[in-house]
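Two proteins, back to back. First:
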Amino acid sequence: MRGKLVSGFVLIALLAALIPCVQAGPLFGLAGASTNSVALDSGDYFNIFVAALIILNVFFVLFIKIARHQSPKKELSRFVHVMLSLLAFVFIALGSVLVIFVTLVLVTISTDINAFVSAYHFFSYFIEDVVFGVIIAGSSGFLIFLIGFYTLILLHGNSLSEMSAMPTGSGAILKGTEFQENLRPTNPNLRFRVLKKENGKPVPDVKVILKKREGITFHTKFTDFNGEVRFENVEGYASDWQALVEGDENREMFRVMQV
């Protein structure tokens, strides 16, 4: 929650800093200029459209990949951690501002809306080729945003991936799935990966106990060099069983994930 507040304040500060620059169009001798001087033909719009499709597709693919990235929290000093976190928030805010700014320029040159004409004036003062500038500035904004987002994942870990992988108190992989046995096959093959909590690395040659939730039935196997273990044709449903490392019943040292 605190991180989101800091990110919001940084974004507001950057937007506030951008306002004088946008209003500076008349100071650069751009007063009275209009966007009619930009004669974009159908080829220019097509190039912008194709570039936007490519950039957005790459952005969403990378964003989803980063969001699903399982990374343990980095052990850094408090000062370094705070400074890198602030830098990540600045990158996210700066990338967002840049994408918003490019969007305002596109709205101005492609429609009759003149509310954002000062943004276009400021943009065209520095970049003569509007089409090239829009593509480069937009892709740079998305890239800066992703760098900041990835830095946050590295620093703080990924609570979303941990929530989906960590067994709940009942041993289910996801909350709310304890009573979905009818959706799962009987006598399944179960495969688990054991990771060290402190660094997220696979742990070979540890004893994994597969216990039935109700009763005393259990199976044991040792993990391979990849930290994985496989139990074949276990009785009943997958939700009937829970896996843990021998000697770590409270899951304080190891994370056991079903894969």
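And the second protein:
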Amino acid sequence: MRVFIGLLALLGQAAFSQSAAAEGKASSKGKTAAVVASKLAAPKQGVKTPGVQIPFSQIKAEATLTTPAKPAFLYFAAQGPGALYAPDAEKVLKFEAKGNTAVDPIPSVKHPCGGMVNAFASLWVPSCGDGKLLRLDPRSLKVKSSIETGVLDVRGSIAASADSIWLITDSKQTIVRIDPDQDAIVGELRVPTGCGQMVFAENSLWLACPEQNKVLRINPATNLVDKRIDVGAKPVALVSGQSAIWVLCGKEGKIDRIDPKTDKVSKTIDLAVPDSAGAMAFGEGYLWVTMSGFPLTRVDLTDGKETVAQQFWGEGGGGILTSSGAIWLSNLNNGTVSRIDPKLVLATLAE
């Protein structure tokens, strides 16, 4: 059974100075004030390889969507023309991808949280306001069933495997397993405090545990933790791609690559942005990262390179995900969501 899983995540910010802009106006080399100001305001952090750092202001979004709230997560469902979903206080907002326009939201979801998944011919939405997991018809968006689970408001609290829905349900870090045929809880397990951000890949459930500096590999056949994998400090985001699990480690500002065959870190990529929250997505053959002060970073995974190819700095960043031919990036500062063409990103070069 084919399962589509949405991904999630956080933050980014920087500012240009008036003095730099004034200096740019006086430039006799034909460069605009914005470009000169951008160069003078370049951050101290980040990868310093020539040609990697680029002002985020140089990217022109295909569309900018406005949301009433500042969305803590984004989700894309690929059926038909595709649609983007973002949480609001008492509903889930929906935007049609074809026209980048807002359509009727999903009502009566009390504090949607943790993310969404599309599996078993349904959309699944945790509702933190009443502690329920809602199962929606993907076409009508009407509630098919409501399951009393309890829900913990942590990023990435829901995931789908081949035969089950998995959900973190309480502050004691209980993960429940839900059978979609019964719409009922059929198993549970306890994990360390502070764990969150789940993803299902390589026939396993993977869970980031920032306080333990570990990623747990859970066997869905036994509902038990098979491996506790040491990673860099404070793993805050997970994503799967190219037969690997990628872990964003916020304390050191690095990405660890876990090889599922050995359950060990086989590569570390330095983003040079320590002490930063962030999120990741995989698409178009690249790993995309958003972090504080660096709304968009592209990691090239082609031909085994696994290196930072572009790092855009400036204001913006929050949740990030990809769909066919698009990067969706939220800005937690102003509550907008930008649709960006990956080809445009690749074509944007440092001055």
